[in-house]
Design a protein that fits this description.
There is one protein chain. With 370 residues, this protein is α+β, with helices and mostly antiparallel strands. It has 3 domains: 63 residues, no CATH class; 81 residues; 177 residues, hpI Integrase, Chain A (Orthogonal Bundle), CATH 1.10.443.10. Helix content is 40%, strand content 12%. A 3-stranded antiparallel beta sheet has the order 1-2-3. A 3-stranded antiparallel beta sheet has the order 4-5-6. A 3-stranded antiparallel beta sheet has the order 7-8-9. A hairpin with a 4-residue loop joins β4 and β5. α2 crosses α5, α6 crosses α7 and α12 packs across α14.
Amino acid sequence: MKLPNGYGSVVKLKGKRRKPWAVRISYLQEQPDGTVKRKRKYLEYFMKQDSALAYLAEYNNGGLVPEHQKYADVPTFAELYEKWKRYRNSLKSKPGASTWKNYDIAFNFFANIHPQKVISLRAQDLQDCITAQSSKSRTTVGNMRAVIRGMWSYAVMNEIVENDITQHLVFEFTESDAPIHTRFTDKEISILWESLWVINNVDIILIYIYTGVRPVELLEIESENVHLNERYMIGGVKTEAGKNRVIPIHESIVPLIEYRLAQNRKHLITNKYGNHYTRAVYHNSNWNTVMGKLNMNHAPHDCRYTFAALADNACINETCKKIIMGHALGNREGTAFKTGGTADVTRDVYTEKTIPELVSEVNKLPVTFV
């Protein structure tokens, strides 16, 4: 039987012995020259293997001796991430807030192994999580690589684990020019409207499509930042142009947002228990469940592609579209919003749009399709 690393072991000794089964642990011992070596120590001997295993289990659940790391005290994957995060933030070269947001997203891609003790994890456990995200971009997979390599480097340095199992992992991704996103077809959008209030949480998908927000942006919007009477929300992440921007509300999704606000929760979008969603949890549970019921195959980011396609077809003002999608900046007075960039100074710097203008433009998006 394979026992976890650091747990100890039960071995059968050679020769004829009355008690051939030994309980053995490893520990660290400092040498005269200042180096540290791992040693082995036998704790007890038994006539039967079962008795030895029972003793080892009791030992790991019992008192801690200085030279042995008790299995119960070994951090889980999630706990190690938090330890590494605190360590990195203690350094002068600590990552910025936006980097940590990307790292947190990458961390959530390892959700299946969050509760597992790190010394019981094998390279294949990590590889399975990485392979499952091979359709993601180079940046996304690169963030996953940065997270686990940083975690295991920290774990080895602090003698939580003996070996760095991340060194030979394969990080495959989808090249940026490969079509990983496809818009919802007109027929699919019609099915979404027909399924509204029939299939749970279809309203979230329609809100995504008619606002054009990034997947994580909608999940982060707080109810207090929804101004339904004026038909706009405040939200957005990722770029300076996208942060805390005005997101106009299409007239057709007003009842959908009213429904969400009526639940009187901190965040506009929550699960049925009122808990805040992370992007990974929303994708792996809520989103995939709805897609399965509708027999559709889309990722949350496809909603943003759909918004852009519908906006083009509806001839929405290009400046307004860039502002709505987060490719724009608000002016200093906060009364109007203008695009950023230097390609066209007249359009990108001096052309400003008010909230009513943004609402008027977004209302051009169709609800019915012939």
